[in-house]
Amino acid sequence: MIAIYKVYGKIVLKRQMEYVERKNIMGKLRELIGIVKSSRRVFIQMHNSPDPDAIASAFGLQYLLSLENIPTVICYKGEIDKYNTQRMIELLNIEVRNIRNIADMREDDHIILVDSQAGNSNVSDFIGCEVAAIDHHPSFQEVEYDFVDIRPEIGACSTIIAQYFMEDNIPIPEAVATALLYGIKMDTLELLRGASELDLDMFYALHKLSEIDIINKIQMNTLQFEELIAYGNAIKNIRIYGNVGFANVGINCPDSLLGTISDFIISIKEVEFSIVYSPRENGIKFSLRNEIDGLDAGRVINTALEGIGNGGGHKAMAGGFLPTGKLVKTYGELEPFLEDRFLEIIETEGLNKKGV
Ligand SMILES: [Mn+2]
User: Fold this and answer.
1) Looking at the predicted structure, is the pLDDT value of residue 95 above 50?
2) Which of 25, 121, 140, 328 is 20 to 30 A off residue 114, Cα-Cα?
3) What 3-state DSSP class applies to 240?
4) Helices 174-187 and 52-66 meet at what angle, rounded to 10?
5) What is the pTM of this model?
6) How far is the CA of 341 from the centre of ligand 1 (A)?
7) Distance from the alpha carbon of residue 179 to the mean position of ligand 1, in angstroms
8) Ligand 1 centre from 157 Cα, in Å?
């Protein structure tokens, strides 16, 4: 890792100077503040079962808005079930609230979506008004916002928030820098997955401002017994067809863990595309990872679940949900049906990209 910082060191310093020089130009942050300035209260909504990148982005944005005396509440639906994410919240003193503990949200309250967009399968529609979206996922649905900063080419939403600080030359408190650094680290697998030049720049700048000790503490002893069971199921149930791996990790595996197991499955040498899923009471939850050049995991799941469910994401990682209510298939029929469907789409998409 040290080698990476050294290589990019010079370039980053030059760019930081450019940011400083540009500080007087009205940036994205000013535009956003203009929109929410007069709000009674702003809710910063993360995707359901938020991950470190979503939490860091919300935390950073909350700080930026607090400088303008704009009252905010960071909120989400679902559970924060991964131990390292809970540790992050605890150690950095981040205040997040589950929607079930917010009784007084009103229609005229403003919502800023971070690391998410309205209409996605993993974003619940709260009663407030979605006025803004800051995200790094591709859009699968057109939604009108008063402010939008959606950049699918960026590896982490934390990077976009960090850029707001840098552009306007706003000093970053240590806890915020540490959170954003951890967000980038987690979403880009230590800068090795989908990291853009801006991710590298922000990572480098944040690294110097962060308390690395806290990151080490967040990452220590993070494997829980429940996770071990899910890994066990994945190992037991994995099926590999060519370079595509499928694994059923068992009933009600938490969303965030599903992604971690998909990362694990794709780390197998023979697997270049992984589809990991967990049956729920009302459907099946999917997590996909892709290492094949001509393929896009987001498109694969979007096509596979078209008309029967909802899915999307990036080239390298994606997710989706298939409600079983509408499907007239027993569970035993469903697994082979899904495998065929995915394999067919992967093959067709791969061939299309090669221009065959
Ligand atoms: Mn993210």
Assistant:
1) yes
2) 25
3) strand
4) 150
5) 0.73
6) 27
7) 13
8) 5
Q: What is the distance in A from the centroid of ligand 1 to the CA of 198?
A: 14
Q: How many CB atoms lie within 10 A of CB 83?
A: 16
Distance (angstroms) between ligand 1 centre and the Cα of 337 equals 31
Instruction: Provide CATH 3.90.1640.10 ranges for the chain.
Output: 2-219
Find the 42 Cα to ligand 1 centroid distance in Å.
21
Rounded to the nearest angstrom, the distance between the alpha carbon of 136 and the centre of ligand 1 is 7
Sheet holding 96-98, edge to edge: 96-98, 72-76, 42-45, 110-114, 129-135, 147-150
With 90 as the cut, is the pLDDT of residue 221 above it?
A: no
The lowest-confidence range among 108-112, 271-275, 309-313, 328-332 is 328-332
| Architecture of the domain spanning 225-353 | Roll (3.10)
Which pair of structure tokens corresponds to residue 331? 């569970």
All CATH 3.10.310.30 domain ranges in the chain, comma separated: 225-353
How far apart are the C-alpha atoms of 133 and 344, rounded to whole Å? 34
Q: What is the pLDDT of residues 253-271, one digit of tens each?
A: 888 789 989 999 999 999 9
Distance 88 CA to ligand 1 centre (A): 15
Distance from residue 187's CA to the centre of ligand 1 (Å): 6
Q: How far is the CA of 323 from the centre of ligand 1 (A)?
A: 24
Q: Is 57 left (phi over 0), alpha (psi -120 to 50) or beta?
A: alpha
Rounded to whole angstroms, the Cα distance separating 111 from 92 reads: 23
Instruction: Please say whether the beta carbons of 239 and 246 come within 8 A.
Output: yes
> Which of these, 178, 297, 183, 306, lies nearest to 244 by C-alpha position?
297
Please tell me the distance between residue 115's alpha carbon and the centre of ligand 1 in angstroms.
Answer: 5
User: In whole angstroms, how large is the CA radius of gyration of the chain?
Assistant: 20
With CA atoms as reference, report the closest residue to 121 among 241, 234, 285, 239.
285
Beta-carbon neighbours within 5 Å of ion ligand 1 = 53, 115, 157, 187
One-letter amino acid at 257 equals: L
When the candidates are 3.40.720.10, 1.50.10.10, 1.10.287.180, 3.90.1640.10, the CATH number that belongs to 2-219 is 3.90.1640.10
